[in-house]
Amino acid sequence: MKWVKALGGVVGVAALLGLGIILGHFAIPKGADPLAPSVSQDLDLEILETVMGQLDASRIRETLRELSREPHLASSPRDEALVQLLLQRWRDPESGLDSAGTSTYEVLLSFPSQEQPNRVAVVAPTGDILFSCRQSEENLTEEQAGPDVVSPYAAYAPSGTPQVNLSVHNSLELRNSSNVLGIIRGAVEPDRYVMYGNHRDSWVHGAVDPSSGTAVLLEISRVLGTLLKKGEASPNPAPVQGLS
Ligand SMILES: *[C@@H]1O[C@H](CO)[C@@H](O)[C@H](O)[C@H]1NC(C)=O
Ligand SMILES: *[C@@H]1O[C@H](CO)[C@@H](O)[C@H](O)[C@H]1NC(C)=O
Ligand SMILES: *[C@@H]1O[C@H](CO)[C@@H](O)[C@H](O)[C@H]1NC(C)=O
């Protein structure tokens, strides 16, 4: 009589399901839509299209040129100048965000010596030097030989098990370094956050890493900030733009 039990089981499930549907029908208050698009939809396609339509490649190019004009090693004067540039963009009366500020941390960083660059040499068992790293980048463009360009730490060797002669002259220093945060408050769920960020420091001019990302971030925040100042967009949830 297995099939009887099986049928009983199916009916039992069906009865419970039916009961659930009936209870649900009366239990959920009419008029309230718990999944209203304004609350549940994370992606507002209209805002997305508006933002995409207003992004300006030439502004990204200009910003990238400015960000990578000089090397900006973490905590260096140029790095601090970029903190001010970001604050100024995010506090702009026409395209700024709801708020922008910095938080500064004392961090222990490792700096290579300018006078005594690090060296890596691959030495054969015979004592012959097979490979020696370059002490500085090849001066392909004028700025490559600038005083603020940090000598590379190159640890690159052909395969094998040779002896490696490594001389490192770094120093550990406590320095102040700031995160910059720009904030747009969310219209509907201000306690939920969308974070968009990038690092800022670069040992050289950093046009690709990291400033290409920063330039795009600044253009997106300019478009969002402009819509915000015009009262045309108040995203949900709250996006936070951060850089460190
Ligand atoms: C680097 O190259 C530029 C030309 O591209 C030249 O004017 C400059 O003197 C060079 N600097 C060094 C230190 O070699
Ligand atoms: C390793 O480098 C140091 C510093 O340049 C040098 O004095 C030493 O002779 C080198 N050793 C070998 C095995 O090449
Ligand atoms: C960091 O900044 C604070 C406040 O200005 C200062 O007291 C402190 O000495 C600074 N630390 C370093 C390592 O410069």
TrEMBL record:
Name the UniProt key words of this record, in alphabetical order: Membrane, Signal-anchor, Transmembrane, Transmembrane helix
Q: One Pfam family from the UniProt entry?
A: Peptidase_M28
- Domain (Peptidase M28) spans 179-226
> Where found, per UniProt?
Membrane
Organism field: Pteropus vampyrus (Large flying fox)
Q: Which PANTHER family does the record associate with it?
A: AMINOPEPTIDASE NAALADL1, N-ACETYLATED-ALPHA-LINKED ACIDIC DIPEPTIDASE
Q: What is this protein called?
A: N-acetylated-alpha-linked acidic dipeptidase-like protein
Name the InterPro entries for this protein.
PA_dom_sf, Peptidase_M28, Peptidase_M28B
Q: Which GO terms describe its molecular function?
A: carboxypeptidase activity
CC annotations in GO: membrane
Family named by the database record? Belongs to the peptidase M28 family. M28B subfamily.
What's its membrane topology? Single-pass type II membrane protein
Q: What is its main location?
A: membrane
Residues passing through the membrane, by range: 6-28
